[in-house]
Amino acid sequence: MSEEVKPCACCDCDEEPTEEELLERLDAVIAEYRGKPGALIPVLQLAQGIFGYLPEVALKHIARELRKPYSEVAGVVGFYSFFTTVPRGKHLIRICMGTACYVRGGVQVLDAFKKGLGIDIGGTTEDRQFSLEIGRCFGACGLAPVIMVDDDVHHRVKPKRVGEILAQYAEEPVLVETSERSERRSADQPAEQFAGSQRSA
Q1: Which residues on neighbouring strands pair with residue 135, listed in sequence order?
Q2: Which helix (H) or strand (E) holds 132?
Q3: Taking the CB of residue 122, how many other CB atoms lie within 10 A of it?
Q4: Could you tell me if 148 and 154 are in contact, meaning their C-beta atoms sit under 8 angstroms apart?
Q5: Spatial contact of 15 and 8, defined as CB atoms under 8 Å apart
């Protein structure tokens, strides 16, 4: 579940929303879920969609508004790998470290991404374009090693292809991005029948 972050009312405004504006959006989410059983996780998911991550101010606000101990809220965030308390980049790169991918060169692929991006696991590039994480298994073991960039599956990835893959997601006009990416990734699409948008647990 994700929250679509809408632009501000003035269409020509490129400014980032303020913390107060983000908390107002969060209040609307909390109002919808308050009093419902199991509200915490969907509220956290939507809060992460609003903020891009879960800053302490959001966690304290959720705890207060849902009348839950802060320790409980923080504990849920720490338990589920989907949640993050650090800002993520525009594109999330996840390297599979399941047994098949590990044996078939996943570590070398991970090292190539770390070097290419200049960040470690859990890090985000300075321009906030890419974040790097590892996953347990994407359900495409026969196509190992496998990575996912956002919801896109790339299979049989070799370290020498890392630069090419990163270039597909580099900052570029949306119209060009849409058409060129689909052509570039056509060779990777068969993996989606195995993995689709499956995310690591």
Answers
A1: 96
A2: strand 130-135
A3: 12
A4: yes
A5: yes
Residue spans of the domains in the chain: they are 19-79, 91-195
Spacing of C-alpha 80 from chain mean position = 13
- In this structure, the dihedral spanned by the alpha carbons of residues 37, 48, 63 and 71, taken in order and rounded to 10 degrees, is 100
Positions of E strands within the chain: 91-96, 130-135, 147-149, 152-154
Name the β-bridge partners of 117.
none
Output the six-digit token pair for 122: 């859990």
Structure tokens at 110: 């991970």
Contact 97, 135 (CB under 8 A): yes
Per-residue pLDDT of the chain (201 residues; tens, 9 = 90+): 444 444 444 444 457 789 999 999 999 999 999 989 999 999 999 999 899 889 999 999 999 999 999 999 999 999 987 888 888 888 999 999 999 999 999 999 999 999 999 999 888 898 889 999 988 888 889 999 999 999 899 999 999 999 999 999 987 533 333 334 444 444 444 444 444 444 443
Q: What is the DSSP letter of 54?
A: -
Please name the fold of domain 91-195: Glutaredoxin (3.40.30)
**Separation CA 51–CA 131 (nearest Å):** 16
How would DSSP label each residue in 110-131?
A: HHHHHHHHT--TT-B-TTSSEE
For residue 92, the surrounding DSSP H or E stretch is strand 91-96
pTM summary value:
0.58
